[in-house]
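Closing statement on the 6-O-phosphono-beta-D-glucopyranose sub-project.
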Amino acid sequence: TDTAPRFPEGFLWGGATAANQIEGAYAEGGKGLSIQDVTPQGIMFPRVDGPTEDNLKLEAIDFYHRYAEDIALFAEMGFKVFRFSIAWSRIFPLGDEETPNEDGLAFYDRVLDELEKHGIEPLITLSHYETPLHLAEKYDGWVNRDLIGFYERYARTCFERYGDRVKYWLTFNEINSVLHIPFGSGGINTPKEQLSEQDLYQAIHHELVASARATRVAKEINPEMQIGCMVLSMPIYPLTPNPDDAVAVMNADHANLMFSDVHVRGYYPGYAKRFFRENGIELNITDQDAEDLTNTVDFVSFSYYMSICESGDPTVKADGPGNIMGGVPNPTLEASEWGWQIDPQGLRIVLNQFWDRWQKPLFIVENGLGAKDQLVEVDGVKTVEDDYRIAYLNDHLVQVGEAIADGVNLLGYTTWGPIDLISASTAQVSKRYGFIYVDRNDDGTGSLDRYKKKSFDWYAEVIRTNGGSL
Ligand code: BG6
């Protein structure tokens, strides 16, 4: 048997969240509206005109007021790292102002103070599906080049304010998801059906330039800061051994890998240029853009929930349920209650693929099972017996250990939603990921009280033993 050490010393164990899915307080402290405040059904669904009462995100799990209590619970599990996002519209309520909103900045000072108190390293996402609504409505989001400057100002403000106490930063959450959810991911107000590929790829280009500029600015302010890109990862398998299917996989992979290829290498790969050529896409890339792109990332982070198949046969349906990307369902795999197919080995495969391709440190910043939980009473204590969640996470972490044994350089692992939060795709709270149960229901009722699930102790033990208990 392989006796090589699995998880390295200093491995960053923890959990990951996003502002709009936990904070609530959508109009407090001078916060402006974000695209989340007008998507009550989730980012996969069309927007509405303004905030509506059925939007669970407006109050979410009230982390804005309960952050100290929640961080203390993370500390009790032994978290080494906590990933959260800054709500851009707390710092720049409209997005295009010259000066930031001090109240918003002060809130994240308080969060950072609390993390520091418990010795938990912060990992901050600058843009997690939270573009200020004004930027979507006035500029059509990232389609407009002006967004680069607004984002740069926002990033600089955050780096200057927090850069001496925050080492790890991510520029855009799941940047490749803009291919599928242009409003949710890119603040692009033009309805998806009317958005041209030309505008979509120009928007992508603007995001990639903005990300690279943020990296340059961070290094100018404090070279200790480590900047990562963040992509939605999903290994794609050929549905059959037919070479047509293998080519379909290659093409589908390229569509996603382009984002991190540019982030890591600093220029567009040949396959992307071919795609632009053959689809009549003419990107406006200035000399300054090309120069900016050379500010490449320090590490590559990604989410992992599921794998998918591809087929070269146009009659095969490619709309598997329940995920942003679509794809052909895998006949050999089971799925979660939301139709996301469960594939622990896929995580090992993706870790190897990314490490082989880029030789950059990797960071798994999302992984987990969204499931319906039942609050029960055991010995007078309210809890959830979530053995299914423990099994999911354990199986995935065993594969992470395999990948580390394969030689992959991995900085850390943060589960998605260590505390129940509002789902991104469907805006439900009943799609629970947490080790901590939050008493809130899809109809908005509930006390917001927190309860430890069975998985709470399980994860604490995994961290305490640095993976030895898996
Ligand atoms: C990722 C997002 O797509 O998956 C998160 O970065 C999201 O914001 C997570 O919550 C899980 O998806 P969902 O739809 O179950 O919340």
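The radius of gyration is 21 Å. With this model delivered, the sub-project is considered complete and its resources will be redirected to Aim 3.
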